Automatic annotation (TrEMBL), chain A:
Its cofactor is Mg(2+). Residues 1-83 form the STAS domain. The keyword Metal-binding applies. Belongs to the HAD-like hydrolase superfamily. InterPro entries: HAD-like_sf, HAD-SF_hydro_IIA, HAD_sf, LHPP/HDHD2, STAS_dom. Keywords: Magnesium, Metal-binding. The gene is HDHD2. It comes from Gekko japonicus (Schlegel's Japanese gecko). Pfam families: Hydrolase_6 (PF13344), Hydrolase_like (PF13242). Transmembrane segments: none annotated. This is Haloacid dehalogenase-like hydrolase domain-containing protein 2. The keyword Magnesium applies.
Automatic annotation (TrEMBL), chain B:
The lineage of its organism: Eukaryota, Metazoa, Chordata, Craniata, Vertebrata. It comes from Gekko japonicus (Schlegel's Japanese gecko). Its cofactor is Mg(2+). Gene3D superfamilies: HAD superfamily/HAD-like. InterPro entries: HAD-like_sf, HAD-SF_hydro_IIA, HAD_sf, LHPP/HDHD2. This is Phospholysine phosphohistidine inorganic pyrophosphate phosphatase. It catalyses: diphosphate + H2O = 2 phosphate + H(+). Its main location: cytoplasm. Phosphatase that hydrolyzes imidodiphosphate, 3-phosphohistidine and 6-phospholysine. Has broad substrate specificity and can also hydrolyze inorganic diphosphate, but with lower efficiency. The keyword Metal-binding applies. It is found in: Cytoplasm; Nucleus. Its EC number is 3.6.1.1. It is an enzyme of class 3 (hydrolase). Keywords: Cytoplasm, Hydrolase, Magnesium, Metal-binding, Nucleus.
Length: 259, 271
């Protein structure tokens, strides 16, 4: 491994790491306070397709987490940044709750396609509209490519299958902006003036959180909460820098060993 | 003269794709004949060449589809048409499969005598407006709940042309389900080798004695060539100029339309 510099930034996943559904991970609020007392920048990073930052923030505040809106970086933010960089007008196939994160963007006469998770938009007519735009040269941007997710009534298709279908129809590759893409982690550090070698990521998804971060030259810490299943740490190479019980233990390790 | 036309000795039969070769689908009346195609079919039949139609059409039963073509003026009967839904029914029966059908409402009668209770596979065709999130999700749940998920796809086309533009075809949704469940679909229809072989069997003609004519560079031309046939691409239907520079598939020849293909073939064979 390349020589590491002193730690300056900590990226923290939300769902499954700080909280599981509507309950905080025990001790997580206190641990976050301890982390805030250290000289590190903190960013909260998440693959969300349906909740805007404000909704995420509200949920975290209800659980007594001390978090600011501008510390949150989501796959929707990453999509928006890419749209602004490319100066394109998107057709947004995202749920209404996510639209707020795109407010102010010109969406008339679209020349780009953004696929989030939007069951009500994934109908044949809308898919054809997206198809025609891509054939005419519009970039296809995927918020992420998850195969499916768990809903109260069972498993349900994620954005991935629809992105894959459109890729096949148009013989193009989507630009995926969420975790585990390398650019997602680099973008999350923007404004912190920290290099990836100075950052660590804490998350419960071995591939998307830990593998993705390590692939972007950060350290990755896997926590055994949320979607963690025994043996997950063996799923990536190189393995996680560290695997520990939960967020508070991860914070303690950082405070004692990485500063 | 085009190179492909110089080596036609021994040709005994033609296999024709239908949509985009005989007619463009969509709009009122269900479509419009491509100029010269009605006459071209008559000329083939008068020439003594064997003729079979090979379609991936799954928006209607074979009977209804043929009736529409007859209404449009084509000389065509049901047993001249090789179509995926009847082929799928044979497979379902052979393998005791009970399908969840993700297909167009108008093709459901083809599956009338197939047991569809407690499904142990998914059959998908060109379902058009039935490709809703809800229906696709239902198909996904059937597949993800099976120990050995079986997905039969009636064709794997990317898109086809209707009178008002290009439309997404079944292949897009087949790929979506493959990705969601991490499985490989079995394709019934073009470009599957078995499907072309069954069309050739109907004609009693060997692959090297037959020419496929279609508008889809991959599924018509590539599929037929894989099967040992020669294949021409017409510049009608879903044809796009970039097809002539396709990285994997090169047609034996490119013609403006069916009429031109038939004219050249018959002229050469009657020399």
């Amino acid at each position: 491994m390349a020589a590491r510099r002193a730690l300056k930034a900590v990226l923290v996943d939300l769902s499954g790491t700080l909280h599981v559904e509507d309950s905080a991970v025990p001790g997580a609020q206190e641990a976050l306070k301890r982390l805030r007392s250290a000289p590190v920048k903190i960013r909260f990073v998440t693959n969300t397709t349906k909740e805007c930052k404000r909704d995420l923030l509200e949920r975290l505040k209800k659980l007594d987490f001390d978090i600011q809106e501008d510390e949150i970086f989501t796959s929707l933010t990453a999509a928006r940044n890419l749209l602004e960089e490319k100066r394109v007008r998107p057709l947004l196939l995202v749920e209404d709750g996510a639209l707020r994160d795109f407010s102010g963007l010109d969406t008339s006469d679209p020349n780009a396609v953004v696929i989030g998770l939007a069951p009500e938009h994934f109908n044949y007519q809308m898919m054809n509209e997206a198809f025609h735009l891509i054939l005419d040269g519009a970039p296809l941007i995927a918020v992420h490519k998850a195969r499916y997710y768990k809903r109260k009534d069972g498993l349900a298709l994620g954005p991935g299958p629809f992105v894959t279908g459109l890729e096949y129809a148009t013989d193009t590759q989507a630009t995926v902006v969420g975790k585990p893409e390398r650019t997602f982690f680099l973008e999350a550090l923007r404004g912190t003036s920290c290099a990836p070698e100075e950052a660590v990521m804490i998350g419960d998804d071995c591939r998307d959180d830990v593998g993705g971060a390590q692939n972007a030259d950060m350290l990755g810490i896997l926590v055994k909460t949320g979607k963690y299943r025994p043996g997950d740490e063996g799923k990536i190479k190189p393995p996680p820098y560290l695997t520990c019980e939960s967020f508070p233990q991860a914070v303690d390790h950082i405070l004692h060993h990485l500063l | 003269m085009a190179g492909w036309a110089q080596h036609l000795a021994g040709i005994k039969g033609l296999v024709l794709d239908i949509s985009g070769v005989l007619f463009d689908s969509g709009g009122e009346g269900g479509g419009v004949p491509i100029p010269g195609s009605i006459e071209a079919v008559k000329k083939i039949k008068a020439s003594g060449l064997k003729l079979q139609f090979c379609t991936n059409e799954t928006q209607a039963t074979r009977e209804k589809f043929v009736k529409k073509l007859q209404r449009l003026g084509f000389d065509i009967v049901v047993n001249e048409v090789t179509a995926p839904a009847p082929a799928a029914c044979r497979i379902l029966k052979e393998r005791n499969l009970r399908p969840y059908l993700l297909v167009h409402d108008d093709v459901i009668p083809e599956f009338a005598d197939i047991d569809k209770t407690n499904p142990n596979c998914v059959v998908t065709g060109d379902a058009a407006d039935n490709f809703s999130y809800k229906n696709l999700n239902e198909a996904f749940r059937v597949l993800i709940g099976l120990e050995n998920p079986v997905l039969l796809s009636l064709g794997k086309g990317r898109y086809y042309k209707e009178t008002d533009g290009l439309k997404l075809d079944v292949g897009v949704y087949m790929k979506a389900l493959e990705y969601a469940c991490d499985i490989q679909a079995e394709v019934v229809g073009k470009p599957a080798k078995m499907f072309f072989q069954s069309a050739l069997r109907e004609m009693g003609v060997e692959p090297h004695e037959a020419i496929m004519i279609g508008d889809d560079i991959v599924n018509d031309v590539g599929g037929a060539q894989q099967c040992g046939m020669r294949a021409l691409q017409v510049r009608t239907g879903k044809y796009r100029p970039c097809d002539e520079q396709h990285p994997q598939v090169k047609a034996d020849g490119y013609v403006d339309n069916l009429a031109e293909a038939v004219e050249v073939i018959l002229k050469q064979l009657h020399k």
